[in-house]
Amino acid sequence: MKEEIIIAGFGGQGVLSMGKILAYSGIMQDQEVTWMPSYGPEMRGGTCNVTVILSDKKISSPILSRFDTAVILNQQSLDKFENSVKPGGLLLYDPNGITKPPVRKDINICTIDAGNLSSELGNSKAYNMIVLGALLKKKPIVKYENVIKGLRKSIPERHHGLIPMNEAAIKLGEEKICEINTL
Question: Is pLDDT at 22 greater than 60 in this prediction?
Answer without folding.
Answer: yes
